[in-house]
Design a protein that fits this description.
mainly alpha
Length: 181
């Protein structure tokens, strides 16, 4: 671990603390999640019919690729190899997104479903990055906390953008469309 990023927080060697182990485990989890999203988001883009939704997802795909790189940088700060551990929660959210896209009629209904699935993903990421930031702060790893804060800011903005698209057009159009028999 780089000593410039971490200070001893008392009698406990934070490098081998239980919190450090949890921090590393959660990093592995979100690393897997972000990498999985780099393949899941293009499927959402392909299924979206709203131009604004497609653009927002495309922008967030680029950010997600950067999120992968940032998590790798945090691993570097830990002097650890970036390793992914399957994130069961994200795996389930991605599976649910696929089911929503398969079950929803093409058009605004599917777009509304994509937004719903996307927001579930964003909320999971927001919760995870919020916890990781608190762990990094407790472990006196301000450089890591700053990298994680950048990602958290982008995740919150993506969630807000999805809400904006839903409220401005997609949900209203979906509400006005009768169901097919």
């Amino acid at each position: 671990m780089k000593t410039t990023d971490m200070k001893d927080t008392g009698n406990t060697d934070v490098q081998s603390s239980q919190l450090m182990k949890l921090f590393e485990d959660e990093l592995k989890d979100i690393y897997w999640a972000e990498k999985a999203l780099t393949t899941a988001i293009p499927k959402m883009i392909k299924n979206a019919t709203s131009h604004e939704l497609s653009e927002a997802l495309q922008k967030h795909l680029g950010e997600t690729e950067e999120h992968v790189r940032r998590v790798e940088k945090v691993f570097e700060l830990l002097d650890k190899k970036a390793t992914a551990k399957k994130c069961e929660a994200m795996s389930g959210l991605i599976k649910e997104a696929k089911e929503i896209m398969d079950d929803c009629e093409e058009g605004v209904m599917r777009d509304a479903g994509i937004i719903s699935a996307g927001q579930k993903v964003e909320h999971y990421e927001i919760a995870t990055y919020g916890s990781l930031i608190q762990f990094a702060k407790t472990l006196n790893m301000e450089d890591a906390a700053e990298l994680l804060r950048e990602t958290l800011k982008e995740e919150k903005a993506a969630d807000e953008k999805l809400s904006e698209i839903a409220l401005k057009t997609v949900n209203m159009e979906a509400a006005a469309q009768p169901t097919s028999l």
